[in-house]
Amino acid sequence: MFRWGIQSKPPAFMRGFLFSLMILTAWLSAAPDFAKVVRPVLERRCFSCHGPKEQKGKLRLDTLSTDLVQDARAAEMWQEVRTVINLGEMPPKEEGALKEAERRVLLDWLNPTIAQAAKQAQSKGGRVVVRRLNQREYQNTMRDLLGVDLEYTRDFPPDGISADGMRNNGSALQMNAIQLEYYLAAARKALDKMIITEPAPPVFKHRFEKSTDNKFPQGISGGNELGRKKEFIVRIRKDYPEQGRFRIRMGVQVELPEAKGPVPQLHVRVGYRPDTLVDMATLAQRDLTKAGKHELEFTGRIENFPLPVRGQGKYPGLVVMVANEYDRFGQLKSGSAKGGKQKGNQEGEGYPKLRVDWLEFEGPVFEQWPPAEHRRILFESDKRESDEAGYAREVMASFLPRAWRRPVTDAEVDRFAGFYRKLRPNFPTFEDALREVLVMALVSPDFLYLMEPANDKVRPLNAHELAARLSYFLWSSMPDATLRQLADSGELLQPKVLAAQVDRMVGHPKSQQFVEAFVAQWLDVDAMDRVEIDAAVYKTFGNAAQQERLRAAIRQEPVEFFSEILRRDLSARNFVQSEFVMLNDVLANHYQFPDVQGGAFRRVPVPAQSENPQLRRGGLLTQAAFLMGASTGIDSHPIKRAVYVRERLLDDPPAPPPPNVPDLETADPKIALLPIREQLKHHSKDPACADCHRGIDGWGLAMEEYDAVGLWRDKITRRLPSRKTTTLELDALAQMPDGREVEGMAALKAYLLEARGDQFARALVVKLLTYGLGRSLEFSDEPHVDALTKQFKKDNLRMRALVRTIVASEVFRTK
Amino acid sequence: MSQVMSNISTQSWRLDRRTFLRGAGAALALPALNCMAAAKPVAAPRRLAAVYFPFGVSIQMGDKAKRPEWNWFPQGEGRDFKFTENLKPLEAHREHLSVLGGLSHPKVRRIGGHDSGDTFLTGHNIRANHLRNRQSMDQVAAAKFAGQTRFDSLVMSTDGGVGEPTRSSTLSYNEHGRPIPALNQPQQIFDRLFGAGDADTARQARRLKSGGSLLDLVLEDAARVRRNLGKYDQQKFDEYLDSVRQVERRVERAQKWMHIPKPGLTDADRERLELESDSKVPREYVATMYELMHLAFLTDSTRVATYQIASMGDATTLGGKFPQLLGLGKHLHGLCHGWNRDDGIEPLGKWDQFLADQFATFLDRMRNTPAMPESEASLLDHTTIIYGCSNSTTHNNKNYPLVLAGGREIGFQHGQYVKYGEDTPFANVFATMLQQTGVTDRFADSTGVLPELLG
């Protein structure tokens, strides 16, 4: 939350800003002088009870330190003073309330001073603090390092989230005994799977041309022609693996009713049947867009699927179910599909057909035994048979640099070799002992933390540290072989090589990890899951399974959208307004976009001039994930929306509301009937509230055209506390903090781009840099942010360019 | 550290969050306070147990009742009640137990009648949550008592393992809501409690030992690493060092158990055990499981125990065949479906009676054992036990047949038949049990404790 720095002037858009914003932003320059301006007010109004003569409530203000940075106790006291002023509790009634001008002076000093002290208290000297891997990073790293794709972090305690919403912030990511025990357990679990002493297990192969079960729970029947309640079901009673990878191949036939019409959606699930239910997990989902016969192949790791307990079920065996999910919930009534209501097979005119001719199951699959991941660590060596201890040392010498993401010294390898010698007599086999030695490497700080040892002086990162920082930035995982080589040779430190690596990494599928993580944290996509949608108002949310599918699509939209902008290196202006949206069939159906077939997301142009206001979309603000997350589940929540815009898009969060402020909707039942504008007016009667709300309300009111599930509306339906509904006229006219009037979403987006474009650009730099560094930004970062923003604008706000500039920046390349 | 005694040899079990070093199902366990050790606790420890049977009981209520003498619930109410045939064996322990009527888990009332077994100790609507359960009541207590005894809990069932969702063969769920595999072989349970342990134990021991030296080395290394860090990094890094030290201490304590001899048994204790008994002889088998529970409490090997006599897994299960083996005709599910058929009432009532008889024997054993050596009070007086089912009649998820027994020395007042309305969640009984054992005063959807059960 830093503003213009020492070296730069306030950007143009800041000038003439409204007061409320100033309070938050101006604390470097605009706080009134304490001795000249603030103290006299305190003297006049407060000292009589909280001064030399009396210290009511044990509070004495005349001698209270004004250096909040140095004196934490004083900071706490001043915070209390602010609260009672905000609440109007002080001075007491009989003394007469503060005059507006007096209040103003006190708050203008208190607000920025407290904020600065808080910031200072958290300072890490502008340095990246040593941080452990978060869950996502740990999961990916274990997979990439060991080659065993298990769900390692399923039971881990949740990671800490920083004040700026990030899950990769070193200060917020705590370590404790429980966490460490999980690391230990996960390492042992992985190595038990990977280091193998048993002979090759039997491989089970099955081929099915018909469903093995005809009647299944939830009214599903088995068959080759897939329909709404008809799936291809196979149950393998005994001969299936419980460990390792498995492969499913199948032959299918696709029939498409028309070109560019609806397409079948294949859904393959694996699990089992506990009596009257099924417990299944998805192996694959795919749109089949081409007619004719196809052969498909999918693989998975069987441990990651629900598995039956042998000998305990009424319907024993591993189950594979293949469905055509097209219109499973009858929700896709647009387009040419007809006959959507009928039960059973979806043979209605216009339905895309999918037939399974055969299905083969094979598992465990491995090309050799022991499997490749085992051989990568326990490689062939002359010593293997002759000299166990020597071999153990060789193994560690090759494993440690990969695990620790850096070269290791002989002394370090010796310590592991020594540990091996100590353990070996207690363990029945070489492998048993070695597992424990490998475990030790995986609970060492060099594995669990991004270690960049440095004293209190800033220093450039070495090539391996840079490779790791880069890799966790763009892949949320360890460096791959290419990065490792470039680090070994030192070439990575050359700007050109580094830039080329950024391009390679952004283009690599692993960068999806970055997109998902950054979008979730920047935009707080989780907010939508914290809102329960009222199904009585929004019927599409009535059916649990349907809602789940819709929510999944809504959640995915911002990820796909960001991905599109990054991959195509488009301008960040698209985040505010774009001429395209990213949709799949479920979401298109929700937004009422015609002719989007299939479950895969794709780019859909927004019609330039459309009769249908529903189609006026584009940018982040019209996405349901945001509109829903900042709603009450029944109606829009203009304040939440406004705070969201200021916090996430403008990096200018308003001060948190003072304690005891009621929510809008829980106020007086009479107020519940008023239009939102009147409600807000009522709410802001108190001058303490009015200050902040002037800087907030406009942002939310302009978005009133959109309801709680992100759809355009021309009337506002509101549910009253009595549970009756009332209809209100749509009113999206808003006065912005600078006094300008804006009406509706389109105008708001235009205003954002025109009046706040620079602020938005800067905010995005701040967010991305914060993520990239894994720490909160501080004052000392101001010049970096300025420089990056300048370059970002020069690059026409192209996203890839920003990623490149950040990686090349001094702040990213130093510790 | 929750050490649950259970069947890991045949299950892929999961680590729970308080567990260290693959501890979860294993036999070795944890720190400190052992009743065998020199320092004896001043007050007798408080214990908690749960026993469950599936598919409901014989209910013959109201004017249309065909055989009122076979109504599971007693006649009368309050202190003035009379046992019918079903619970007659409990008469001798009347002053040590209360019969509870009208209770159920509100969230479970609407799910399938046969799907409620998993929820007996959790109260969680698993159907609405993709078959994922929540921590069971006993494990809340086990977590609280963790480390005070060799095993944090003893989880047993006739069928063993975890079964499948809605057909669970265990009553106990860890804090992630994952089923804890139950032990079902008397010999194996005995070995873990009193014998040399098994393969799991040996592996566990090796890993505990290597875990200790592993952490030592890590700590040494980490201390070296720390010296090269700046001040903010050092502050942050100390979290790691502290964590390693804490885990190391836990391992040390865990290792100590390996050196503490397992409790010895008297010849009389041994004679009562039929370790060879299998589930084909229900009377002997169930009695042995109860006896193992009793011995586990007696030797203070654990403070928490659960036993599922049979599961909702229908005729394919071991417990499901008990009625047939007892000469009551049908498998359990079929037997329970006869609750309202002329020829079905008495066989079901006799099954209820069989269960009550077994339970009575267990109560008898608990009553005739002092809570501590030379203590006046009995083991039963320091143990609170819930006994019952999540169906009244089969498929009916309301009005659970329940008996709450024991615990007179820890505040319980008995000798009554208490009828509740549907506004009282069953979890209130758990809240009361947990409160009286010093764990917590709430559980799941509980709305309070039940003062009428307390003296």
Overall SS class of chain B: alpha/beta
Count helical runs of chain B: 10
What does the main sheet of chain A amount to? 6 strands, mixed
Broad CATH class of the largest domain in chain B: Alpha Beta
User: Nearest-angstrom radius of gyration of chain A?
Assistant: 31 Å
Taken from the alpha-carbon principal axes, the silhouette of chain A is globular
Residue share in helices of chain A?
Answer: 25-40%
The share of residues in helices of chain B is: 25-40%
Which pair of chains has the greatest number of interface residues, and how are they split between the two chains?
A-B, 59 and 59 residues
Distance between the termini of chain A: 22 Å
Query: Nearest-angstrom radius of gyration of chain B?
Result: 23 Å
What does this structure look like?
The complex is a heterodimer of chains A (815) and B (455). With 815 residues, chain A is an alpha+beta fold. In chain A, the strands form six sheets. In chain A, strands 3-4-5-10-7-8 form a six-stranded mixed beta sheet, with no helix packed on it. A four-stranded antiparallel beta sheet of chain A has the order 2-11-6-9, with no helix packed on it. Chain A has a two-stranded antiparallel sheet with strand order 1-12. In chain A, helix 26 (757-773) crosses helix 27 (782-794). The longest helix of chain A has 24 residues, at 544-567. Residues 1-29 and 331-345 of chain A have low confidence and may be disordered. By secondary structure, chain B is an alpha/beta fold. Helix content of chain B is 31%, strand content 10%. Chain B is built from ten helices and twelve strands. An eight-stranded mixed beta sheet of chain B has the order 1-6-9-2-10-11-5-12, with helices on both faces. In chain B, strand 3 and strand 4 (80-82) form a beta hairpin. In chain B, helix 6 (282-298) runs parallel beside helix 9 (345-367). The model of chain B is unreliable at 7-40 (pLDDT under 50). At the A-B interface, strand 1, helix 6, helix 10, helix 11 and helix 12 of A face strand 7, helix 3 and helix 4 of B.
